[in-house]
Structure formats: C-alpha cells, structure tokens
C-alpha cells in the first residue's frame, strides 16, 4: 500500500508542477497581452488624436482655400462683426471694438448677444461721440459765408443715395467695390462702411419699388395721359423689346414724362400680341380709363394693335371725342 501511495505521489507531483508552469505561463501571457493592449490603446488614442488634428487642420485649410466638395466656413452674419476684430490670446478668443478698443471675451458657443449689445450702445461705432462734431456748412452755393452745424453719419441714408447714384448714372453694381470709390468715400467721411454689390442690388430694387409706388399715386390724381410706344429687335440678343412712355400735365401746368414700362415681347410681333402687351402695361398702372391719345410708328402691326385697343376702350366709353384722336 505504501509503495502504491508513493507511486501515486510521484505521479501527482509532476502533474502539479506542470499545472503550475502552465498557470505561470498563462499569467505571463495575460500580462503581456494586457501590456500589449495598453500599448495598443495608447497607440490608438495617439493615432486618433493625430487623425483628429489632421482633420481639423485640413478643414481649416479647406475653409480658407474654399476647395470644391468641402464644407465652407460659416459666414458671420451678426451685425456686430463689421465693428470688431477677433484675436486669440491664451487659447481664448477676444473681440476688440474697432472704435473704442473695448476687449470682450468671445466664447466657443458663438453667442453674439453681448457683442451686439456693445455695438448698439457704442456711440463711436455709430459715428457719434460724447461731444457733437461741429461742421462748417455753406449757407448758399454762391455765397462764401459758412454756418456751424452738428454732423451725424447715417449709413441708411448713404445707402439710399448710392442706389440713386448707381441708377441715374447706369453704373454696374460692382462699382461700389472698386478701390477708388472706397477711397473717395473714406476721404469724405471716416465713418464710411464699405458695402458690397449684393447690397447695392437690393437697395436699387427697393428704390425702384418706392419710386414706382410714388408714381402710381401721382397718376391717380391726373385726368388724362397720352402714351407713346415703340418696339425694336436687339441685334445681338435677337429679342424684341417694347418701351411705353407716359406724358401728362399736372395740377401746376407742368409737363411730365415718365417711362412706364420696358419689357421683352416674345415673337411673333403681330398686332394682337402688341395690343395685349400694351393693355397689360396700362392696366398695371391703373390708367385704362385715362388714355387720351396713343402714338406709334407707321408699322402695319401697330395699326392692327391700335384697332384692337380702340375697340376695347370704346366699350368702356372713356375715350375723348369718341376716340377720334386715339390713334396718332
């Protein structure tokens, strides 16, 4: 029995030793794996940081270069940005007022409430100071005498005058973006704020609508208006255009003349098409019942168009002398 037990003990000991060796090897392998995982995690995080840094750098480069198929940088539309400069100090964005040099923190959230409030309250940013500016103004264009007056810059009034300037002189909208125009305006007033061609286009449309409404109100007070019209085809565009001009005498016995319409008339330029275009224009201005005479050239299509219009107006019984002077 003793020998058998010894044999058994001899058999068990190598098994336990092998188990301990296997367990020790397993622990070492697990330790190596954990270390390799930690190293892998560290490498993974470092690689992710490098990738994110590259992505941010690439995004900034693409935003600055405006490459195609890339997300563009968000445009700053708040009213405070034209009056502020943004600098970075100690990883903190600082907004500096261009006029009073006030420094304000600009958070990462992009909130501009504080900045807008400062611009609204900053009198310097609006061309005003604590003391009113004195300006020498001539009392008369031909006189050498001058008078003192308070100066105040109104940017809205300046935009209105510039829109009239562009329309009257038939200048392109990009004229306001030229270097010399900006220099002239800055020489005239230090409070000048540069505007873009998109703004001038919008202001010109607003000016047209305002003047159109004024003219429509003036036409309500007149009794009779005479119309002249003409058509021609553009040589390079191959398009037909029609211009309609109104002539009337106001309450002060002053002769007035205004272009009521300048439009494209698609072909064919038959008498019926011309009459429809004329009737549409007169109806838009509300002067259907105030037509005195209508003057055209000697084209045969115009004779047909005037015949259609005379029949239409005769049914309304508003023509003078039963329409005998309608076609001139």
UniProtKB/TrEMBL annotation:
Bias-annotated ranges (Basic and acidic residues): 41-59
Example of a GO MF term: zinc ion binding
Subcellular location per the Swiss-Prot or TrEMBL entry: Nucleus
Spans annotated as Disordered: 21-74
The keyword Metal-binding is assigned to this record: yes
Keywords: Metal-binding, Nucleus, Transcription, Transcription regulation, Zinc, Zinc-finger
Domain of life: Eukaryota
InterPro entries: RNaseH-like_sf, Znf_BED, ZnF_BED_domain_contain
Segments traversing the membrane: none
Segments of skewed composition (Polar residues): 60-70
The BED-type domain, residue ranges: 75-133
Acidic residues bias (residue ranges): 29-40
GO cellular component: nucleus
PANTHER family cross-referenced by the UniProt entry: ZINC FINGER BED DOMAIN-CONTAINING PROTEIN 39 (PTHR46481:SF10), ZINC FINGER BED DOMAIN-CONTAINING PROTEIN 4 (PTHR46481)
Protein name: Zinc finger BED domain-containing protein RICESLEEPER 2-like
Source species: Heracleum sosnowskyi
């Amino acid at each position: 029995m003793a020998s058998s037990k010894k044999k058994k003990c001899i058999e068990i000991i190598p098994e336990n030793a092998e188990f301990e060796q296997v367990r020790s090897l397993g622990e070492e392998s697990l330790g190596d794996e954990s270390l390799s995982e930690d190293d892998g995690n560290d490498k993974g995080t470092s690689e992710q940081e490098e990738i994110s840094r590259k992505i941010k750098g690439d995004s900034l480069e693409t935003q600055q270069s405006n490459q195609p198929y890339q997300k563009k940088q968000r445009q700053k539309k708040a009213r405070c940005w034209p009056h502020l400069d943004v600098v970075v100090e100690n990883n903190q964005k600082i907004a500096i007022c261009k006029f009073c040099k006030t420094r304000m923190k600009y958070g990462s959230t992009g909130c501009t409430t504080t900045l807008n409030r400062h611009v609204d309250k900053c009198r310097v940013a609006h061309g005003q100071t604590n003391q009113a500016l004195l300006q020498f103004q001539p009392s008369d264009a031909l006189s050498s005498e001058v008078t003192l007056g308070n100066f105040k810059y109104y940017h809205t009034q300046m935009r209105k005058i510039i829109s009239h300037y562009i329309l009257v002189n038939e200048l392109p909208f990009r004229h306001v973006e030229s270097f010399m125009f900006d220099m002239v305006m800055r020489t005239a007033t230090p409070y000048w704020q540069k505007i873009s061609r998109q703004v001038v286009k919008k202001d010109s449309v607003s000016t047209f609508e305002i003047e159109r409404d004024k003219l429509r109100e003036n036409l309500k007070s007149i009794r009779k208006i005479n119309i002249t019209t003409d058509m021609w085809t553009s040589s390079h565009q191959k398009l037909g255009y029609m211009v309609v001009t109104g002539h009337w005498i106001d309450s002060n016995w002053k002769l007035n003349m205004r272009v009521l319409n300048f439009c494209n008339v698609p072909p064919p330029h038959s008498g019926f098409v011309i009459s429809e275009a004329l009737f549409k224009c007169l109806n838009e201005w509300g002067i259907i019942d105030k037509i005195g005479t209508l003057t055209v050239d000697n084209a045969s299509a115009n004779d047909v168009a005037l015949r259609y219009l005379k029949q239409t107006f005769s049914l309304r019984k508003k023509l003078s002398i039963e329409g005998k002077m309608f076609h001139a």
